[in-house]
């Protein structure tokens, strides 16, 4: 039975990009029904229990008291939110969150439909479905009004926008699907010069560090296309997603900072949910925060749940102050292997340019 893709309810595990394969309404409804039935059964068991079942009881089974204490401590650490308070035990699993693009678009007023056209077109739906309420907030609408004045509309109908990157690339970071995020590299601005995103000086220093850590495996490429990392679970996120060419920091304070803070919050809750043993919720990822600006963005994150790697920025002015020699790429893989198994490691040394390139880089 055929159906309109925009009307379908899609699940994060099915998504690789905005045009990925999607399920029919019937299968989605069935999945929701199964989830609801399971929830009812669990609720019935809880009510009929002779005593209150604690979280420890559910996970410990018949194990020894010592083992139970360790499991309780581990679970407590993993359910701690970025703010340090305990996350809700009932956090909905990532793959069970339904989303209909048409229903979302129908919920918008005319101005919102016009302003949020780019988000509906270009943002990967694995992110759009958990950020849909955020982009309707007044601060984001005001940001989009500003960008509209700068010529940013949709993917194909923008009026020679006076911003960088091009509208079609503003949400390139979202091509790394949420459930498969392993590592987050935080930048500040897109590179403000139109030619800089190829091999800018900061990226040359990043290549130098990878070569120092993997001398027999890495040959620095002559390009700055990091799409292979994105496909391998590396989220490269700038704090501001647009900039006026030639004017670094020109879009600071317009609203991007609040939005990308929300993106980090979503990663805290769901990043890596679809990795082996992820369990449908975020169990932790690696954050690489280079420079004081990036360090401030991750200051609120739980250092027990996540691996937070900080150092000087890789820019030519600061790289020698602690970036070069930081060992972050090997440290990230060691942590990922211990957390999720050997298949979770990132292949930092492979940076082949895809047939249909979608350049991604971050400072």
From TrEMBL:
Record carries keyword Protein biosynthesis? no
Q: GO molecular-function annotation terms?
A: uracil DNA N-glycosylase activity
Q: Where is the composition biased (Low complexity)?
A: 19-31
Where is region (Disordered) located? 1-45
Alphabetized SMART domains for the sequence:
UDG, UreE_C
Sorted alphabetically, which Gene3D superfamilies does this protein's record hold? Answer: Uracil-DNA glycosylase-like domain
Active site location: 189
PROSITE patterns with a match to the protein in the record: U_DNA_GLYCOSYLASE
What region holds the Uracil-DNA glycosylase-like domain?
174-336
Q: Which keywords label this protein?
A: DNA damage, DNA repair, Glycosidase, Hydrolase
Q: What is its EC number?
A: 3.2.2.27
**Which PANTHER family does UniProt cross-reference here?**
URACIL-DNA GLYCOSYLASE (PTHR11264)
Write down what this protein is called. Uracil-DNA glycosylase
């Amino acid at each position: 039975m055929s159906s309109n893709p925009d009307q379908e309810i899609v699940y994060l595990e099915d998504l690789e990009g905005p045009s990925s394969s999607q399920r029919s309404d019937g299968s989605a409804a069935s999945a929701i029904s199964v989830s609801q039935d399971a929830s009812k059964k669990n609720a019935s068991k809880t009510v009929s229990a002779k005593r209150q079942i604690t979280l420890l009881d559910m996970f410990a089974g018949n194990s020894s008291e010592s083992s139970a204490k360790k499991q309780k401590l581990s679970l407590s650490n993993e359910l701690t939110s970025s703010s340090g308070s305990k996350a809700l035990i009932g956090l909905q699993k990532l793959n069970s969150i339904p989303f209909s693009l048409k229903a979302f678009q129908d919920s918008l007023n005319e101005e919102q439909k016009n302003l949020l056209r780019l988000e509906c077109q270009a943002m990967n739906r694995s992110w759009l479905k958990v950020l849909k309420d955020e982009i309707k907030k007044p601060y984001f609408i005001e940001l989009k009004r500003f960008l509209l004045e700068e010529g940013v509309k949709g993917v194909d109908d923008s009026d020679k926008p006076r911003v960088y990157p091009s509208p079609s690339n503003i949400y390139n970071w979202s091509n790394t699907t949420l459930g498969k995020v392993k590592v987050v590299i935080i930048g500040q601005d897109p590179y403000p010069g139109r030619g800089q995103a190829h091999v800018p000086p900061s990226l040359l220093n990043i290549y130098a560090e990878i070569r120092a850590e993997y001398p027999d495996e890495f040959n620095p490429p002559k390009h700055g296309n990091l799409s292979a990392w994105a496909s391998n679970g590396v989220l490269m996120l700038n704090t501001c997603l647009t900039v006026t060419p030639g004017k670094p920091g020109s879009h600071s304070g317009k609203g991007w900072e609040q939005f990308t803070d929300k993106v980090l919050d979503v990663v805290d809750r769901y990043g890596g949910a679809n990795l082996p043993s992820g369990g449908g919720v975020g169990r932790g990822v690696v954050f690489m925060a280079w420079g004081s600006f990036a360090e401030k963005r991750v200051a609120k994150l739980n250092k027990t749940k996540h691996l937070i790697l900080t150092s000087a920025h890789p820019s030519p002015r600061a790289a020698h102050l602690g970036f070069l020699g930081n060992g972050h790429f090997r440290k990230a893989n060691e942590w990922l292997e211990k957390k999720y198994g050997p298949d979770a490691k990132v292949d930092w040394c492979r940076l082949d340019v895809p047939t249909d390139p979608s350049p991604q880089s971050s400072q």
